[in-house]
Specification:
mainly alpha; AhpD-like; 2 domains; Carboxymuconolactone decarboxylase family protein
Length: 185
């Protein structure tokens, strides 16, 4: 997994570039994440209306989704690992701790859905994430295994969640968003 190389293609904005409301949102998000205002937020907030629309959408998936928070973080971490997106991976390791994702889970995530220790539901979810990443689709057998554990609505949310974090990894990589600085406690 690599960090975004070089300098940011779009520098994270300050209060003048992102506006007072967006700046406050960035500060609150940083506090929640244990960092300063996140570079991703400060970069996206340069397009003020787009940022607020994205934030509303993203918030409906995490933390406001119907999937269990631990599971949501496992999905995000697996996508970040598969995409080699260090920014998203490190950010969600920190957030995942609060949702019950332990260090051994993070190490198993790197191995994938076949690693020992996953519940049958977690294994089905992670296998679906891997398949969505590799094929941009789910085979009928994968769908059947997933439906043994998730409702149709949860399957929709899972597909949107995985797809959203694939998109976000692309944006982070293309814009060369740099890692956030973790606040000292």
């Amino acid at each position: 997994m690599t960090a975004a190389s070089g300098v940011p293609r779009v520098a994270p904005g300050g209060i003048r570039e992102v506006g007072t409301v967006n700046w406050l949102v960035c500060r609150v998000a940083g506090r929640a994440a244990g960092t300063g205002p996140p570079n991703l937020f400060r970069t996206l907030a340069r397009r003020r209306g787009l940022f607020r629309g994205w934030l509303w959408f993203a918030g409906r998936l995490m933390p406001g989704g119907s999937l269990p928070r631990r599971e949501t973080e496992l999905v995000i971490l697996r996508v970040a690992h598969l995409r080699g997106c260090r920014y998203e991976f490190d950010h969600h390791v920190r957030l995942g701790r609060r949702a019950g994702v332990r260090e051994r889970d993070v190490e198993r995530l790197k191995e994938g859905p076949r690693a020992d220790g996953w519940t049958p539901r977690e294994r089905a979810v992670l296998a679906a994430v891997d398949e969505l990443h590799a094929d941009r689709d789910l085979a009928d057998g994968t769908w059947t295994r997933l439906r043994a554990h998730l409702s149709e609505g949860e399957c929709v949310e899972l597909a949107v969640l995985a797809g959203h974090y694939e998109m976000l990894a692309t944006v982070i990589t293309a814009l060369r968003v740099q890692p956030d600085h973790v606040r000292e406690r």
